[in-house]
Amino acid sequence: MKPVLRNLLFESFPATDRGELSAAGREVKLHVGQTLQGSQHRIADVYFPITACLSLHARSPEGGPEVMMVGFEGALGAQLALGVAAQPLAATVESPGIALRVSAADFCRQLDGSSALRDALDAYLDVMIQQVSISCGCLHAHQVGERLARRLLMSHDRARRHEFHVTHEFLAKVLGVRRAGVSTAATQLQREGFISYQRGEMHVLDRRGLQGASCSCYASSRNAYARGMRNFEPPGAP
Ligand SMILES: [Zn+2]
């Protein structure tokens, strides 16, 4: 996979809006475990991850399974386009890296003058709603092993490389299951030859095999992005 150092949602904006937002914003380094937004807190900034990856939870980062990821395909704080001031989901940094940060005030000022920018955000918000719906269904309908395979594929897509750091403890938290359950499922995936895992370093060896082990939610999720975002490029090799 070749590295793509950009944000796909941001690139779907008109050139004028991109220029204004780039000038108003700043590239910032995000650190693993950093909390960017508490649930129901006022949206202070909009983040467009470039190399960082965020995990969004319905409740506090300490509890409640993940309902969505945001990487280089999306943004945190897009709800400002709906006229709401509070972020409904808590957001923490899963993978460290760079993001473009724009203050809510600058972002709203740009939104007020650009219907095309609003249209692009509406399309993304529709995809977000679909992602949350898929995750909720997945949580209740599918087994730990297939959910783990799906989650590893989601990380693989956003990492844009075959190796990435992730711990069983973190995976247990985002999947809303016990750590022992993750370890058992990961051991099975390793035995199948789909992944190798050692001391927090995950290596995807057989992406196609991992897709076969995943529930159908992974394909549903990718299809929702492909339908809703015109410049969406499936980041991982199918
Ligand atoms: Zn599922």
- Summing up helix and strand content along with how strands pair, one would put the structural category as alpha+beta
As a whole number of angstroms, the C-alpha radius of gyration is 17 Å
For the secondary structure, the number of strands is 12
Order of helices and strands: HHEEEEEEEEEHHHEHHEEHH
Tell me the overall shape: elongated
Which segments are poorly predicted (pLDDT under 50) over 5 or more consecutive residues?
none
Main sheet attributes: strand count, strand direction, barrel closure: 4 strands, antiparallel
Going across the major beta sheet, what is the strand order?
Answer: 2-8-5-6
- The separation of the N and C termini measures 11 Å
Keywords, separated by commas or semicolons:
alpha+beta; binds zinc ion; 12 strands; 4-stranded antiparallel beta sheet; 238 residues
SSE map:
Layout lengths: L7 H4 L3 H10 L1 E5 L4 E3 L3 E2 L2 E5 L3 E5 L8 E5 L15 E2 L2 E6 L1 E7 H9 L2 H27 L2 H16 L3 E3 L2 H8 L3 H13 L3 E4 L2 E4 L2 H7 L3 H12 L10
Helix pairs in contact: 4-9, 5-7, 5-8, 6-7
Bound molecules: zinc ion (ZN).
